[in-house]
């Protein structure tokens, strides 16, 4: 079988393993990817992560609920544990990478989406400072200043907790206007992002990484222009 066909077959199997909550299948397929000398990064992005995107859609349509999401995430991490050590730096790309502070805002204990996006950031070569869930708003500001992170990524799954994001954006921008702030979560839209004064939002884990890389590149350009 041609490598391209094999790659497609393995990516589909990895995606299915995540959707079907099958840790063993995720491990076995990930091992085959390595044995065949295929790209670990491609298998993560177009296999495991693609499967998690489908899981997100199943969650949105109420076919899957939190218990299923957790089991799907377990399958994703089972495959990731095998693939991640085999990622080649050149596969990730030469785009500017940076540091990210990430967390779920105060009052919100949903962290599945945040954990997946954290994993995607790490795979893409970012240094991640994870504050966890139900994070006091001031803590985002403090951590950004302590780490001098380029990006702060805020997650919220409820409309009520989403309102806290606006305060965080205002507090961080007041201290450091050059920090890029990304919002994510079910109630977040492009309009909300603009209204809150944030720099970007992500409707999926894959988009979060692409958006973050663009943000870091823009930031470095801005900083270069001010020197």
What can you tell me about this protein's structure?
With 227 residues, this protein is an alpha/beta fold. The chain has two domains: 3-91, Orthogonal Bundle (Methyltransferase, Methionine Synthase (B12-binding Domains), Chain A, domain 1), CATH 1.10.1240; 95-226, Rossmann fold, CATH 3.40.50.280. The chain contains ten helices and five strands, in the order αααααβαβαβαβαβα. Strands 2-1-3-4-5 form a five-stranded parallel sheet, sandwiched between helices. The termini are far apart. The mean pLDDT is 87.
Task: Give the helices and strands, then pairings.
Elements: H1 3-19, H2 23-35, H3 40-60, H4 66-83, H5 89-92, E1 99-104, H6 112-123, E2 127-130, H7 137-147, E3 151-155, H8 159-175, E4 180-184, H9 190-196, E5 200-202, H10 205-226
Parallel strand pairs: 1-2, 1-3, 3-4, 4-5
Helix pairs in contact: 1-2, 1-3, 1-4, 2-4, 3-4, 6-10, 7-8
Characteristics of this structure?
5-stranded parallel sheet, Methyltransferase, Methionine Synthase (B12-binding Domains), Chain A, domain 1, 2 domains, 10 helices, 227 residues, Rossmann fold, alpha/beta
Oligomer: single chain
Please tell me the CATH architecture of the largest domain by its name.
3-Layer(aba) Sandwich
Give the low-confidence spans: none
What proportion of the residues form beta strands (DSSP E)?
Answer: 5-15%
The average pLDDT is 87
**Helicity, as a percent range:** 55-70%
| Spatial shape | globular
Task: Kindly provide the name of the CATH class of the largest domain.
Answer: Alpha Beta
Beta strand count:
5
């Amino acid at each position: 079988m041609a490598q391209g066909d094999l790659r497609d077959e393995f990516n589909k199997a990895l995606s299915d393993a995540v959707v079907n909550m099958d840790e063993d299948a995720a491990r076995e397929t990930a091992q085959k990817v390595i044995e065949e000398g295929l790209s670990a990064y491609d298998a993560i992005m177009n296999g495991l992560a693609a499967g998690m995107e489908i899981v997100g859609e199943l969650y949105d349509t109420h076919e899957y609920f939190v218990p299923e999401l957790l089991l799907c995430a377990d399958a994703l991490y089972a495959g990731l544990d095998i693939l991640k050590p085999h990622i080649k730096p050149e596969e990730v790309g030469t785009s500017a990478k940076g540091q990210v502070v990430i967390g779920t805002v105060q009052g919100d204990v949903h962290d599945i989406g945040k954990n997946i996006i954290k994993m995607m950031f790490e795979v893409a070569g970012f240094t991640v400072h994870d504050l966890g869930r139900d994070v006091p708003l001031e803590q985002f500001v403090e951590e950004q200043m302590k780490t001098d992170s380029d990006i702060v990524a805020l997650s919220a799954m409820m409309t009520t907790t989403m309102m806290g994001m606006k305060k965080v954006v205002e507090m961080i921008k007041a201290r450091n206007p050059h920090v890029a702030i990304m919002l994510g979560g079910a109630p977040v839209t492009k309009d909300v992002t603009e209204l809150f004064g944030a720099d970007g939002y992500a409707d999926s884990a894959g988009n979060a990484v692409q958006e973050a890389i663009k943000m870091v590149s823009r930031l470095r350009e801005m900083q270069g222009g001010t020197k």
